[in-house]
Structure formats: C-alpha cells, structure tokens
Write a structure and sequence with these properties.
single chain; 7 helices; 76% helix
Amino acid sequence: MHDLWGWLPLLPAILLLLGWYLSFSASRLDRLHHRVESSRAALDAQLVRRAAAAVEAAPMLDPSSGLLLADAAAEALAAGEDAVRGLGDGVSRALGREEAENELSHALHAALDDPVHVDRLRCEAVTADALDVLAQACERVQLARRFHNDAVAQAQRVRRKRVVRWAWLAGRAEMPEMFEIDDSLPAGLVR
C-alpha cells in the first residue's frame, strides 16, 4: 500500500504527458485530413483539365476516334460535376467518377496509342498544340493522383493506430479513400 502512494505525485505528470500525446496525435490527424482534402481538390482540377483538353483535341482526330474521345470526356466532366455537387453517397460518387475517368483513359489509349498516327497529326501546328496540352494534362493527372494517394495512405496509416481509434480522434470524419484509375499516357503522347 505504501508503494501505491509513492506513485501518486507522478500521476499529474503522466496525465499531462498522455494529454499532450493525444493532442499531438489529433492535430497531426487533422493536418493529414486537410492535406487529403487539398490534394483531392488538386486532383479534381487536373482531371477536369484533362477532360477539357480531350474535348479540345477530339475534333482534330478522325471522326470515330474523335467522337469516342469527346463522349468519354463529356462523361468524365459530368461525373466530376456530380462529385463536386455531392449527388449520391460518397462511395457511389467516387466509383462513378473513377469509372468515368477510366473510360476517358481507355478512349485516350484507343485514339492515341499509335505513335506513327500521332506524329502525322502533329504536322499541323494547331493539332500539335492541342496534343501537347493534352499530354501535359495527362502527366499532371498522374502527379496529382500520386500526391493524393500518398496523402490518403498516410492518413489511413495514422487512423489505423490503436490510440487514434480508442480515443476516437478522427471523430465522424470519413476514412479517406484512394483514387484508383488508369492514368497511363497513351504511347503517342509519351515524349
């Protein structure tokens, strides 16, 4: 019993240390969630930019490829607007956006995978400029998605810690999700 009273003066220091650790963990998790949100906004902007560049390049392609590309880009833009407006629940909204962006990637590959064909298209200055803008937009999507998924992975790693779950530090915030799409560049756009 005497040993128990010996620990009593240390109790405030232990509680202070625990409080500091929980506060530090909560603010770190908050920063990670803000990073996920800002990287998602940047990714959304780059996806819109890629779809807009695809719409601009579509009329310069042969009619069937151009129509396929313009249709996929319009679907991607519509899915992006639905995601921004918050139509549907979070999971179906994300899956719809990913599906639309994958369709755009497939359309880009179908239209621009042949480097010889793309080199012939680049003979005209206007077409070459449109393809360069499209290539830059595709590269920026790759980077933005990589940054977003890195931020999500860090936030998920912290949220899986026992102390974060037990102390309920994440509150009611949804678990951040990766954005998985095929963002590879068509062979014709690779520089």
